[in-house]
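step=encode ok
step=design start
structure_in=
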C-alpha cells in the first residue's frame, strides 16, 4: 500500500464506501499499517459518519485525561474486534469542516509512534502542537453575564456529578426546561452575580419560579468574584465535568444550546472566578414571586403575551435554607434521577 493510500483521509473514504473486512455485529474498522504490542491502530466511523481514530490500549494501560473541545472528543472505549474484546483510545472529529485538519493530526500521531513514541504520549504531544488548528473560528463576543451564568451552572453540575456520573441528565435548562436542573419533583434554579450587595434576580417568565407539581423548587444564589488565576472558569469546570460524566458528548450538546460552541474558546475564558458566597432558598408561597396563580382565573389578561420581572432577595430572608441541607437536596435529586 502506498503512502497516499495509508493516510487517514483515504482510510475514512474507503470505510465510507464499505471497504472493510466482514465484521458481523462488530465495529467496522480498517487496520493501520502500524501495529503496537496491544494491537493494530485502526480507523473507524461514528454513527453519523464522523472520522474516528482508534489507538489500542493494553489491558492495564492508563491513557490519562485529554482536553475535549467542540471539534474533538477523546474517550476510552471497549469494542469487539476480530473476536476479541479490545480497549481503545477513541478520537472522534465532530466537526466535518475540520476533518482535513484531524487527518493531519492522525497522520502525525502515527508518524511519531513509528518514531518510537508511546501511543498516548504521541497523542498528547501532537494535540498540543495542533491545538490552535482544531479550534473553530472565534465566535461572537460574550458578555460577562453570559460567562458568569454558565460558570454558575457548571459549578452546580459538577457538584451533582460528584454524586452520579448520570447527573448531566438533570441539566434541563439548555434543553428547554423551565428550570436549570430537574429530576422528578426536585428542581434547582441557579442565579449567579458578581456582587454580594446585588439582591436582585430576574425572572424570565411566570413559570421560572413555579415549583414542580407536588414537588420542590430551590434557588441557588451564587456570588462569583472575578479573580485572576481563579480556579473557576468555563474551561476548568467543563474539563472537570468531563472526567466525572459518563456522556461527555451530551455536555457538549448542552453547551452548544447555550451558544458556547467550544468550552476552551478564549471568548469564554478571558475571566476566571472564585466562589465568594452561596445562599440556598426554598421557593414556595412564602418566597416573593409571580406565577399564573396571581392572576384572576389563572390566566394572563387578554393581550398580555408574557411577563418578566425582578425579585429582591432581601425580602426573601425567611426562605433561606441552612447550607447544611444542600447535600440532602442534591441526593434527593439524584435519587429521583435514578428512578427515571
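sequence_out=
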Amino acid at each position: 500500500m502506498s503512502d497516499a493510500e495509508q493516510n487517514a483521509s483515504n482510510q475514512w473514504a474507503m470505510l465510507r464506501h464499505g471497504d472493510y473486512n466482514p465484521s458481523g455485529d462488530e465495529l467496522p474498522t480498517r487496520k493501520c499499517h502500524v501495529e503496537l504490542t496491544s494491537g493494530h491502530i485502526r480507523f473507524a466511523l461514528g454513527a453519523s459518519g464522523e472520522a474516528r481514530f482508534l489507538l489500542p490500549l493494553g489491558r492495564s494501560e492508563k491513557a490519562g485525561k485529554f482536553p475535549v473541545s467542540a471539534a474533538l472528543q477523546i474517550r476510552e472505549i471497549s469494542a469487539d474486534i476480530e473476536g476479541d474484546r479490545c480497549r481503545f483510545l477513541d478520537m472522534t472529529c465532530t466537526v466535518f469542516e475540520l476533518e482535513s485538519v484531524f487527518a493531519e493530526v492522525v497522520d502525525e500521531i502515527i508518524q511519531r509512534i513509528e518514531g518510537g513514541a508511546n501511543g498516548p504520549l504521541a497523542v498528547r504531544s501532537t494535540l498540543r502542537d495542533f491545538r490552535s488548528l482544531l479550534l473553530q473560528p472565534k465566535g461572537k463576543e460574550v458578555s460577562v453575564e453570559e460567562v458568569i451564568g454558565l460558570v454558575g451552572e457548571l459549578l452546580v453540575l459538577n457538584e451533582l456529578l460528584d454524586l452520579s456520573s448520570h447527573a448531566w441528565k438533570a441539566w434541563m435548562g439548555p434543553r428547554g426546561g423551565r428550570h436549570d436542573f430537574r429530576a422528578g419533583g426536585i428542581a434547582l434554579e441557579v442565579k449567579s452575580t458578581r456582587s454580594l450587595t446585588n439582591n436582585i434576580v430576574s425572572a424570565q417568565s411566570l413559570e421560572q419560579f413555579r415549583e414542580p407539581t407536588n414537588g420542590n423548587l430551590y434557588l441557588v444564589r451564587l456570588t462569583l468574584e472575578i479573580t485572576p488565576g481563579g480556579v473557576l472558569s468555563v474551561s476548568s469546570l467543563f474539563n472537570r465535568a468531563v472526567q466525572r460524566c459518563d456522556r461527555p458528548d451530551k455536555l457538549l450538546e448542552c453547551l452548544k444550546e447555550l451558544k458556547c460552541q467550544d468550552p476552551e474558546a478564549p471568548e469564554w475564558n478571558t475571566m476566571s472566578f472564585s466562589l465568594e458566597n452561596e445562599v440556598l432558598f426554598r421557593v414556595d408561597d412564602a418566597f416573593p414571586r409571580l406565577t399564573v396563580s396571581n392572576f384572576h382565573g389563572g390566566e394572563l389578561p387578554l393581550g398580555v403575551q408574557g411577563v418578566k420581572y425582578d425579585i429582591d432577595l432581601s425580602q426573601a430572608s425567611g426562605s433561606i435554607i441552612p447550607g447544611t441541607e444542600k447535600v440532602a437536596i442534591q441526593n434527593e435529586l439524584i435519587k429521583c434521577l435514578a428512578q427515571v
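step=design ok
step=annotate ok -> The chain has a mean pLDDT of 88.
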